[in-house]
Design brief:
The chain is α+β, with helices and mostly antiparallel strands and 136 residues long. The protein contains two helices and seven strands, in the order E-H-E-E-E-E-E-E-H. The chain has a seven-stranded antiparallel β-sheet with strand order 1-7-6-5-4-3-2, with helices on one face.
């Protein structure tokens, strides 16, 4: 598992609202996302399909099952050619104007069993999320 945390200059309520918005609009939060399709949505989960273009890598189609409870959103990839993956997004109250944002990524290569350890991926996603929340 790799994780990264940073502080958003926003209330917990604002961060949480952006986390929920991210379910339907990941392109504002995750680098390299395109062709987003919400395949199913109910009170318990969302099934989302999209393409992700990794930096200097191939474009991959992924299908995710997304669940959310305050203040945690879990993105579990249920269709990916190379990896088994789940990513957790956490929001933690710091003060009325600051919230700790943490992403934890559990990526495992299906063929080799090797865990993904590229911390730049998760750091870039957290920083892009915070920049969007803060309006940059």
């Amino acid at each position: 598992m790799i994780s990264y945390s940073s502080i958003a200059k926003a209330s917990l309520k604002d961060v949480w609202e952006h986390f929920i918005y991210k379910i339907d609009n990941p392109q504002h939060f995750v680098p390299g996302v395109s062709n987003i399709i919400i395949k199913e949505k109910n009170d318990d989960y969302v099934i989302r399909q999209m393409n992700i273009q990794m930096k200097d890598g191939p474009k991959n189609k992924v299908v995710e099952k997304i669940t959310s409870v305050p203040y945690h959103v879990k993105f579990e990839i249920i269709e990916h050619l190379v990896f088994t993956v789940h990513v957790d997004n956490f929001a933690e109250f710091i003060s009325e104007k600051e919230t700790k944002v943490t992403y934890a990524m559990h990526w495992k290569n299906k063929a080799t069993g090797e865990m993904q350890t590229n911390e730049t991926i998760i750091k870039d996603a957290v920083l892009k999320t915070i920049a969007f929340i803060e309006g940059y």
